[in-house]
Amino acid sequence: MCLVMAFSGTYSAVIAGDQREILFRGEASCIALLESELYSNRLCTEEQLHARAAELDVSITIRDDKCKVWEQDGILIGEVTETDGPVIRKRRICVSCGRYAIFEKSGESWSLLSRGEGSHFLVLGNEATKGIAHQCIREHWKPGGGTLEDAVKVLILSMQEAARRTASVSRTFSILQTRTKADVPCSLGM
Fold first, then answer.
1. Contact, 128 vs 40, CB < 8 A?
2. What is the C-alpha to C-alpha distance for residues 167 and 116, in angstroms, rounded to an integer?
3. What share of the chain is helix, strand, coil (3-state, %, to 5)?
4. Is 176 exposed, middle or buried (0-12, 13-18, 19+ CB in 10 A)?
5. Is the predicted pLDDT of residue 137 greater than 90, yes or no?
6. Is the pLDDT of residue 190 over 60?
7. CB–CB of 54/87 below 8 Å?
8. 3-state secondary structure at position 87
9. CA distances, 85 to each of 26, 66, 76, 151 (Å)
């Protein structure tokens, strides 16, 4: 699980997602320990991650080309994945102008976690990346709101800061925008 952020504004919406995917192979308890250290930000650099993986005899593969955000029928969608042994959990944001929904999939079906209207920042990721993103929002978003350009700046700064401070986020990211006020779904049948 890395970092996907969105902003739903009255007249536009924007979403950004890093492109890192980390695959682990080894003993389940060692992988769980390594993931815990990575996602709590005790491992801040790739060098620290590789060194700790070697200590735990866990093989890791890091790819920085996974697409986590896309547009479908005027709705911006972002998705993060978290594994816990054989259990795979996904969280998905669906956002358009002034509307959003957040879903979670554990097993075969998607559940609606929250849905709303109005201007909002939405953040999916591990505890460390969410903390970094929320700090950037507090520091760079004007109380009472700002412009779309301000929101884009917050997303970009969050992505850059998370990449600088944790090994779980890539330095590259995708960013998409829409001015469509589409109805976000109440459920996902995917």
1. yes
2. 32
3. 30, 40, 35
4. middle
5. yes
6. no
7. no
8. strand
9. 11, 21, 30, 36
pTM, two decimals, is 0.90
Helices (H), the chain: 28-39, 46-55, 127-140, 148-165
Please give the structure tokens belonging to residue 29: 């308890």
Cα-to-chain-centroid distance, residue 23: 17
Average pLDDT, integer, range 89-116: 91
Which residue from 123, 129, 137 is spatially nearest to 166, judged by alpha carbons? 129
Length of the chain: 190
* Interatomic CA distance for residues 160 and 72, integer angstroms: 26
Structure tokens at 126: 């591990």
Domain spans, the chain: 3-20+66-178
Alpha carbon 164 to its chain centroid, in Å, reads 15
Q: Which amino acid is at 17?
A: G
Neighbours of 114 (CB within 10 A): 12
State how far the Cα of 156 lies from the Cα of 150, in Å rounded to an integer: 10
At residue 85 the predicted structure's pLDDT band, cuts being 50, 70 and 90, is low
- Report the CATH number of the 3-20+66-178 domain: 3.60.20.10
